[in-house]
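Per-record layout

source: Wickerhamiella sorbophila
name: Cell polarity protein alp11
length: 227
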Amino acid sequence: MTGDIVVNIVGELASVERYISPGWTLEQIKARIETITGVPPASQMLTVRDPHGHSRRSLESFGPSTTVAAMGITEKSQIDVSDTRPRDRRLDFNGEVEKYEMPLSDYEKRSDSVLEWKRQNRLGRFQEAPLQTPTHEEIEEECSLTVGKDCWVKLANGTKKAQIAYVGSVEGIPAGTWVGLRLHEALGKNDGSVKGKRYFDAEANHGVFVRPSAVTEIDDNDDLEEL
């Protein structure tokens, strides 16, 4: 660009080098600066420094038709741009453009949105909740058996009377719900513990763990005798 000079334009959000013509007017300079900094010409306060960063002087005393050469702007000069608008009025197009907010119902229908990406990748509120181990109370309610109640239990050597001592999972044996029983006879396999972990107290060989389907709870008014 024959005859043009390079200047450094420095704003609050940008610092760039640009070619300008010595014949440009102050009005043209401000219009160019708006495209770089976003500051409207009416809100620009310009000062210029020499190529060494010294001799700072204001350009506000010059008229809009004053040329670059007449203002003493030379090769490698620095033009500092200050925004005179209040901070809450900056970068909002002076409030003249109404902001558009897409209705949520329309946004949820878009296939190129962040929301859709999260839905496809099961992130955020679309993430599947991890399976939670039910509490003993939940398991007890699920199988309708109550700890402390007497019951009938089907064992290999017949149906026996026992007391429900535990309902829940047991480490070291197949997963699922187990019912720990305190037998009245030494027909069990443990004392209420399995592989060193205790689930209830019972005498030796008076404890046993069975599935809920093998247990029938005795009603308080039931006077059935042991079969």
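summary: The chain is about 15% helix and 25% strand. The first strand starts at residue 5 and ends at 10.
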